[in-house]
Amino acid sequence: MPTTLRLLTYNVRSMRDDRAALGRVISSVEPDVVCVQEAPRFLRWRSLCAELARRSGLVVVGGGRPAAANLILCNLRVDVVSTAAVRFSKDARMHQRGTAIAVLRLAGATFAVAGTHLDLAEEPRLRHVVELDRAIAAHVPADVPVLVAGDLNDRPGSRTWAAVSAARADAFATAGTVSGFTSTAADPHQTLDGIFVDPRVTVRSARVIEHPDAAAASDHLPVLAELELP
Asked: Could you tell me the keywords of this UniProt record (predicted)?
């Protein structure tokens, strides 16, 4: 029987907002794996990432500052096979970008996730998509399906969105329901965040999480996809 995975992607704005609300939003949807963008990366970043995991009822898999503030969390059903933190090439006056990658196993099914947060400017965004694909090829065996999740800082229909989804299905476009707007949490009017799925994986559902605490937790809304692993 196929294995069902609940994958969440969430930009948490460095936990600068209501941390208790943030934990309630994440735990309310009972994800198996969470790809976090804008995880704490400076003072006490390790303890803050651990706090986020604890408030969410999850554990830290990898990432954080070494992965340019991309963090991966999971529940105790998930086994960790390997992890990697990769930083992309940096442009002057721009934030450091990168990816947190993990090869995981759930109920006998092996898969990988790559969480990322792309740049505000188009040229580095497109360059970093190429670097993301190279990082995945370097750290994930070819026979393992890969799920990419994150904040693209661009919209569906853009060159960035097309580059990320060139070899992957946009989960929300495949099976999304209601609105796909993820930004801002207080006034959702644009889609910046998404989950992109290996062709070997089936998308059962995808939705933006609208929770009573969402506007207090971060300036983005999270996206949850329910997937069938081969």
From this structure: DNA damage, DNA repair, Endonuclease, Hydrolase, Magnesium, Metal-binding, Nuclease
Under 8 Å between Cβ of 43 and 19: no
Domain enclosing residue 200, as ranges: 3-229
Q: Please give the C-alpha separations between residue 80 and each of 67, 72, 149, in angstroms, as whole numbers.
A: 17, 11, 18
> Would you say residue 178 has pLDDT above 80?
no
Tally of domains within the chain: 1
Q: Quote the CA–CA distance of 230 and 228 in Å, as a whole number.
A: 7
- The pLDDT tens digits of the residues spanning 129-170 come to 999 999 999 999 999 999 999 999 999 999 999 999 999 999
Answer whether residue 181 shows pLDDT above 90. yes
Nearest Cα to Cα of residue 222 among 174, 175, 167, 183: 183
What pLDDT, in 10s, does the model give residues 9-42?
A: 999 999 999 999 999 999 999 999 999 999 999 9
Instruction: Write phi, then psi, for 161 (nearest 5 degrees).
Output: -60, -40
Provide the edge-to-edge strand list for the sheet that holds 3-11. 59-64, 70-74, 33-37, 3-11, 223-229, 202-208
